[in-house]
Write a structure and sequence with these properties.
Shape: elongated
Order of helices and strands: HH
Helix content: over 70%
Strand content: under 5%
Low-confidence stretches: none
Number of domains: 1
Radius of gyration: 15 Å
Number of helices: 2
Keywords: Membrane, Transmembrane, Transmembrane helix
Number of strands: 0
Length: about 70
C-alpha cells in the first residue's frame, strides 16, 4: 500500500499548509460570502474584517482536527 503524498508530512509542511488554507478561506472566501449576501460595499467589507479573527481561529482548529 502506497503512502499518501498530498498531505503534510512534518511540522514545517503543516505550518505552510495551515497558512495557505487559512488565508484562502478566511481572507478571500468570507468577504465574498458576506458581499454576495449583503451586496458589495465598503461597510460590509469592514464589518467582515471585524469578524475575521474569530473565523480564522475556527479555521485553524478545523484544519488541525481534519488534517
Amino acid at each position: 500500500m502506497q503512502g499518501e503524498t498530498r498531505l503534510p508530512r512534518n511540522r514545517k509542511e503543516f505550518a505552510l499548509f495551515l497558512g495557505i488554507i487559512s488565508v484562502i478561506s478566511v481572507n478571500i472566501i468570507a468577504p465574498f460570502i458576506m458581499g454576495f449576501k449583503f451586496r458589495f460595499q465598503k461597510e460590509v467589507y469592514f464589518s467582515t474584517l471585524k469578524i475575521i479573527p474569530f473565523v480564522w481561529i475556527i479555521v485553524v482548529l478545523l484544519v488541525t482536527l481534519v488534517a
